[in-house]
Amino acid sequence: MYKYRSSSRFKIFDTVVATLMFIGIGYAVIATTNNIAAQISVAMVVLFISLWIAHRSRNRIFDVEFKEQFIVVDHVFKPDNARILYENIIELQFISVNKSPTFNKMIFNYGEKQETIRFKTIARGDEFIDFVKWLKSKNDKIKVSVYPPDHYMNHRLQKEYGFNYRKVPKID
After folding, report:
1. Separation CA 127–CA 148 (nearest Å)
2. Which range scores top for mean pLDDT: 5-9, 80-84, 158-162?
3. Is the pLDDT of residue 1 over 60?
4. What's this model's pTM, rounded to 2 decimal places?
5. Distance between CA atoms of residues 92 and 105, nearest Å
6. Which CATH class is domain 62-161?
7. Is 90 exposed, middle or buried (0-12, 13-18, 19+ CB in 10 A)?
8. Which residues does 93 contact at the CB level (< 8 Å), separation at least 6?
9. What is the crossing angle of helices 11-32 and 36-60, to 10°?
10. What is the pLDDT of residue 62?
11. Domain definitions of the chain by residue range
12. Could you give the CA distance from residue 145 to residue 142 in angstroms, rounded to a whole number?
């Protein structure tokens, strides 16, 4: 049973749009060129770029389940499942930019390497504060940060965990 859940499935649409754009550009170039060698080379380049985009997105689309003992990262298009212990989490970032979905970025140790995953935000507002409290109950060393720094969530987190005002340098 999971306590919290999120996903990066929103990237499927971006992948499909990018692939269709490359196919459309390739078709336009092929339609305007009379040279058969140029048409074949453009078709090959479009094919390789489309396959590269699909392969790259295959690794980046997953579901994340925060269970009581560990975190499960289940890749949608791959048979891989990864289990991340809460002790291995280094940082959780809340990132909210204009014209883009709000997402979380988690940095953790996996094996010998430091890995990063991005997924849609677990919750918004007070629910995110509850999620951070729950996560810190599992590992109190997790650093939580908010980007941009003037986002309202940064104020809510500081209200909960103490205010951290920037130091203003003295000018003599």
Report:
1. 19
2. 80-84
3. no
4. 0.73
5. 6
6. mainly beta
7. middle
8. 104, 105, 106, 107, 144, 145, 146, 147
9. 180
10. 83
11. 9-58, 62-161
12. 10
**CB-CB contact of 144 with 91 (8 Å):** yes
Report CA torsion sign: 27, 29, 31, 34.
Answer: negative
Q: Are 164 and 158 in contact (CB under 8 A)?
A: yes
The three-state secondary structure class of 79 is: coil
User: How, if at all, do strands 89-95 and 143-147 pair?
Assistant: parallel
- The span from the first CA to the last CA of the chain, in angstroms, equals 59
Using CB atoms within 10 A of its CB, is residue 131 exposed (0-12), middle (13-18) or buried (19+)?
A: buried
Q: Are 89 and 142 in contact (CB under 8 A)?
A: yes
Residue whose entry in the numeric block shows the structure tokens 């995953």:
117
